[in-house]
Write a sequence for this structure.
């Protein structure tokens, strides 16, 4: 298993792995579009409604899925977005 590079700000949880992440959530995450607002805030669209994901001490999203399981497709979408960015430059 290859090690995933750490975030630019040294936040510990950069992994896409999470006990609550199902294949379905991952698939949804890959279908979403991410737009950077600030280096720690992203606007995620493509689902039923847009959501804002924030990275501070930990990841946060304003959707219901996040409230229940502390992870959601929006946060995953941002993590994928960031990893893609790192790959290219
Ligand atoms: Zn969310």
């Amino acid at each position: 298993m290859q090690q995933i590079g750490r975030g630019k700000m040294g936040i510990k949880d950069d992994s896409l792995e999470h006990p609550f992440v199902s294949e379905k959530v991952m698939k949804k995450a890959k279908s979403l579009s991410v737009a950077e607002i600030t280096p720690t805030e992203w606007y995620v669209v493509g689902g039923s409604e847009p959501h804002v994901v924030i990275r501070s001490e930990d990841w946060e999203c304003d959707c219901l899925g996040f409230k229940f399981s502390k992870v959601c497709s929006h946060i995953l979408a941002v993590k994928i977005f960031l990893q893609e960015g790192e790959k290219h430059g």
